[in-house]
Design goal:
Elements: E1 3-7, H1 17-26, E2 31-33, H2 42-52, E3 55-60, H3 73-89, E4 94-97, H4 108-128, E5 132-135, H5 152-162, E6 167-172, H6 173-179, H7 183-190, E7 194-199, H8 215-224, E8 230-233, H9 241-249
Parallel strand pairs: 1-2, 1-8, 2-3, 3-4, 4-5, 5-6, 6-7, 7-8
Helix pairs in contact: 1-2, 3-4, 4-5
């Protein structure tokens, strides 16, 4: 059964974080997620979570967007440990990991070796703290110019080298459609490596209805795989939050 998680960063921009969590509940969704945690009041998030009974599906480790930087291995492991502590407080099982940008003058393979070394250490910390890291490829065409990890097969290759049960892929359907397409093929082939999904319409990163992606078909294909995690709704509504979220429910 498909389960959705609402990314509160992209909805209800005039409300507080706690108000947004309550809006997720009102809209009939079982979970929420967010990006950075250090700029938020975790006690208030926990209170709203407990009041609503919602699940926390994912949020980002901090520091983020810096795996391709040099010399920050200890800082990244510390970031996993600190973020895992917050995740356990919020009963969240996934931490989002982003790589950062291409390093000028550095070959892909050199950067890749660096990223793999760091992820091995980070994954050990994740294993010790029973948390899953979900590594996210992003599109470098529109939203993240210069970003290093862009394709599904690159993430698959990295995960194979790291070889940890606590490192999986965050498969962002929007980003991968912009970058490479082949959504149904890649989802079907690599579903065992996918720990979380994100979704948004293409083009525009808005509602899921319309555009070039058939989300009704995509969700049905994901459901057939037996995937039991969440699909994050990480889009910016143009029709108003209520209508946009009702549209999502019409797709399953």
């Amino acid at each position: 059964m498909i389960k959705f998680s609402v990314c509160i960063e992209t909805f209800w921009k005039d409300k507080t974080v706690e108000e947004k969590i309550r809006e997720v509940k009102k809209a009939g969704f079982p979970a929420f997620e967010f990006w950075d945690w250090k700029n938020k009041d975790i006690k208030n998030i926990l209170k709203a979570r407990e009041e609503t009974g919602l699940e926390t599906s994912a949020f980002c480790i901090e520091p983020n967007f810096c795996l391709t930087d040099d010399g920050n291995e200890k800082e990244l492991v510390k970031g996993v440990l600190e973020s895992a502590r917050i995740a356990h407080t919020l009963k969240c099982s996934n931490l989002i990991v982003t790589t950062g940008n291409i390093v000028a003058g550095e070959t892909y393979e050199i950067t890749r070796r660096k990223v793999v070394r760091k992820l091995k250490e980070m994954s050990k910390a994740a294993e010790d703290n029973n948390i899953t890291l979900v590594l996210e490829p992003l599109n470098p065409v529109i939203n993240h110019k210069g970003y290093w990890l862009t394709k599904t097969i690159e993430a698959v290759d990295i995960i194979a080298d790291v070889n940890s049960p606590k490192l999986k892929i965050l498969y962002d359907i929007y980003h991968q459609q912009v970058t490479e397409g082949n959504i149904l093929y890649n989802v079907g082939k690599y579903i065992s490596l996918i720990g979380h999904f994100h979704s948004a319409g293409v083009p525009g990163r808005n509602e899921l209805v319309g555009g070039e992606l058939d989300y009704k078909n995509i969700f049905a294909a994901i459901d057939r795989t037996g995937y039991s995690g969440f699909i994050g709704l990480e889009f910016r509504p143009t029709l108003g939050e209520d209508k946009a979220l009702k549209q999502v429910l019409s797709l399953v």
